[in-house]
Design brief:
By secondary structure, the chain is mostly helical. The protein contains six helices and two strands; from the N terminus they run H-E-E-H-H-H-H-H. It is 68% helix and 4% strand.
């Protein structure tokens, strides 16, 4: 009798679905920024609820696949975000505001890379404690708004800017608590099936 080796089934690489989801969420983030609600006399965008989820998805890609896949996801979503804004501006016959676009693009890309760097450090050098994961999310949000504000400085002259800034970070911090818990529960690497 011949010894037959069991054929290993190829592992299906589904990371492209998460990259597509990340890109879709980034485009949705841009679309939601025109829809606002009022809280303590400050107009806030509904996009504030989506931004922490974008960091969670990037961290999920990092944990399940690897650093390179996350870099590809951030790059693809950033480029397609710019393309989306350009196409929508052209389709609506509006002038594309370069300072707003570059502020959001730079804020997104830089904060994602800082988030990725800190997150990789936590994965490789610690047991990823909940508090450090939460602080990474909050720090990434602060970096996003810092770069967005530095590039799009004329927003600071608004009377309610700083109040809105801290309310936004407060709401997003509250959202980051369950997101950090979810992140902590995600297993590192591809799950292997036991047949």
């Amino acid at each position: 009798m011949q010894n037959r080796k069991k054929k290993e089934e190829p592992i299906y690489n589904d990371c492209w679905m998460y990259i597509l989801l990340l890109t879709t969420l980034v485009i949705l983030l841009e679309s939601l920024k025109t829809y606002t609600f009022s809280l303590s006399g400050v107009r806030l965008t509904y996009a504030i609820f989506l931004l922490p989820l974008i960091y969670l998805l990037a961290n999920y890609i990092t944990k399940k696949y690897d650093y390179k896949k996350t870099i590809a996801a951030i790059s693809i979503s950033g480029v397609l975000f710019v393309c989306f804004v350009a196409v929508i501006s052209f389709a609506l016959g509006e002038r594309m505001i370069l300072s707003s676009l570059t502020g959001e693009f730079c804020g997104y890309v830089i904060s994602q890379f800082i988030n990725l760097t800190i997150y990789m450090f936590l994965l490789n050098n610690t047991k990823s404690p909940f508090l450090l994961i939460l602080l990474t999310y909050i720090f990434s949000l602060i970096i996003y708004y810092m770069f967005y504000t530095l590039i799009y400085l004329n927003m600071i002259i608004l009377d309610t800017y700083w109040k809105g800034y801290f309310i936004t970070l407060g709401i997003q911090t509250i959202l980051c608590i369950p997101i950090s818990y979810i992140d902590k529960k995600i297993a590192r690497g591809k799950e292997k099936s036991t047949d």
